[in-house]
Amino acid sequence: MSFATPPALHLPLSPRAGEFYDLPHPTRRGAGPDIVAIYIHIPFCTVKCHYCDFFSVADHLHQAPALLTALDTELRLQIQHFGPINPETIFIGGGTPTLLSPTLLQNLMNMLHQHLGFSSLNEFTIEANPNTFDADRAKVLHAAGVNRISFGAQSFVPGELLALQRDHNPKSVAQAVQFARDAGIDNINLDLIFAIPGQTRQSWDYSLDQALALSPQHLSCYALMYEPNTPLTARLKAGQIQAAPESLEISLVEHTHRKLTAAGLSRYEISNYARPGRECRHNLHYWHSSNHLAAGPSAWAHHDTRRWKNVPSINRYTTALLADAPRVPIVEMEHLSAAQHAGELAMLQLRLRTGLHWMEFQHRTGIDAGKKLSQVLQKYDGLGYLEVSPQHLALTDQAMIVSDTILADVLAAFG
Ligand code: SF4
User: Which helix (H) or strand (E) holds 286?
Assistant: First the structure.
């Protein structure tokens, strides 16, 4: 069972060694208005957590000034290519963006203000590690318009943080949240992980209690994933740790749902809960497969049927962009067929509690989802997992524990 967004679905084409793809031609010239979001990847961390397979590196902060210079060039090249960008949402992730010093954070904010239009912006999020957040950083971010912070809390139990090799102390989360609120940033998300080796229902309940005591507007609760080539997976294979039993994982999912719902948060996506109106708008763009750009090493972007990814290397990224003839260092380029695009859209929208709306889906893709999914509807008929109406299809709360299976069936139905 997985609560993470599914991995890339189509094998990317690869350019020859040392070469990069060109930015795809926008299907509509001056594509700025239909690009609703932009993601910026800052890949530095204090330590590499044992479960992490994001592109991030420890002990490389000395490369931050060069990376920001390269990022500045990348944004300039993208705007030359796509036209002005006036995003509704900006998301700075990583890595740990708040590992940047207040001065470098200020430089990053100045750069974004120089390149992007802010007139349509309604959500500006940055990810933060509780250990690397303070009043100075909070002030810089607030002054630049950041209005949402996503803190990687993960657990409030020291032994569980140790099992994950996180480097923060649970007490630092409350202080970090206070720094954000004191600066005027009141839209707070906490990320939590369940099914950690050694975790019990009581210890998970404790973490939920501690998180709720901070009155976050949003909680993301993901099951621990054993990704290939991570130290955690190596420890699992070596028999040094044991994965949580599936029965415990299911019981934690159900407990989470009951507890967070009772606390006034609603599940709006399989793994995400929010107070009314505080759903993450940036991620909603992803789940609706809206066009978004991205910048930074390993960042991936999507425009219509194209999806592309930058090189996951700081050295190659900065070398390509600081050259005399700079290039956006794109190393993966996918061109989705109409059926693939429709299948992905269906799967992503069904992660949301609002589900898939038949008419809107047909309007966007030209495909009748009701026909495509007729066998899936038959298979799950009467089991209580699907909410079907003349207007829409959605997964019910009971379907959360089997959502991966249902979503795989949905994807397969589109061929
Ligand atoms: S802080 Fe986040 S990005 Fe950095 S190593 Fe840990 S999980 Fe990965």
Answer: helix 281-287
3-state secondary structure 310-332: ECCCHHHHHHHHCCCCCCCCEEE
Determine which residue's CA is closest to atom 8 belonging to ligand 1. 52
Partners of 218 in the beta sheet? 189, 274
pTM comes to 0.94
Nearest residue to 191 via CA among 149, 147, 145, 138: 149
Using most ligand atoms within 8 A of CB, pick from 47, 56, 126 the residue to mutate for ligand 1: 56
Query: What residue owns the CA closest to ligand 1's atom 5?
Result: 48
Pairing of strands 392-395, 356-357: antiparallel
pLDDT digits (tens, 9 = 90+) for 363-372: 999 999 999 9
Whole-angstrom distance, CA of residue 239 vs CA of residue 233:
10
Q: What is the pLDDT of residues 17-33, one digit of tens each?
A: 568 999 998 665 444 44
- Bridge partner list, 126: 92, 149
- Residue in the block written with tokens 């954000």: 180
Q: Are 180 and 149 in contact (CB under 8 A)?
A: yes
Give the Cα separation of 156 and 137 in Å (integer). Answer: 23
98 φ, ψ to 5°? Answer: -80, 5
Query: Could you write out the DSSP letters of every residue in 324-355?
Result: SS----EEEEEE--HHHHHHHHHHHHHHBTT-
pLDDT at 194: 98
CA–centroid distance, 49 to ligand 1, in Å, is 6
Tokens (6 digits) for 403: 């959502």
SS3 371: helix
Which ranges of the chain have pLDDT less than 50? Answer: 1-11, 29-33
Report all structural domains of the chain as residue ranges with CATH numbers, in order of start.
32-287 (3.20.20.70), 338-413 (1.10.10)
Cα(330) to centroid of ligand 1, in Å?
Answer: 23
Q: Is 54 in the pocket of ligand 1 (CB under 6 A)?
A: yes
State the distance from the centre of ligand 1 to the C-alpha of 63, rounded, in angstroms: 18
Q: Is the CB of 49 under 6 A from ligand 1?
A: yes
- Residue position matching structure tokens 């318009």: 145
